[in-house]
Fold this sequence. Notes:
Helix content is about 30%, strand content about 20%.
Amino acid sequence: MINSVVYVAVGLIVLTTVRIVFGCDFADKYVISNQRVTFHDAYVRCRQHGFDPVEILSEHDEKEIEAVLKNETNYGWQNAFWIFATNLGDKKNYYWLDSGKPLFYSKFAAGQPSNVEQENCLEIWKTSSEIFEWNDAPCDTKLRFICKYRQL
Ligand SMILES: [Ca+2]
């Protein structure tokens, strides 16, 4: 009896873990907002809801985000999402706001970041060719945003 309870408990833990790591759309790893807010409001809202503002540190992270966004959005810059890197620190190099890490990985659109004076915050969006790309945009633009469930 005790053994079967243990097996069931272990089974549930394995199932839950697998679902988080390999879920087909990673919907239980990331949270996509319906609201459109400024970059800094987006950061605060992730935190207020107990999530982490998303950071894309590798191609693996990028692929997961793209899998989530694929069914979430129409194409075009109007439908972009904040990812939480900015160059407001030194106006030159981009760093992830939460961890302070530099961009080990990036997927900027051709000609981006354009480094126009007012464009200091990074967004991700889907082109009409169904390709996801990054851009530097004005931080006070109101966009949807991506948070991540805190990993235990
Ligand atoms: Ca730009």
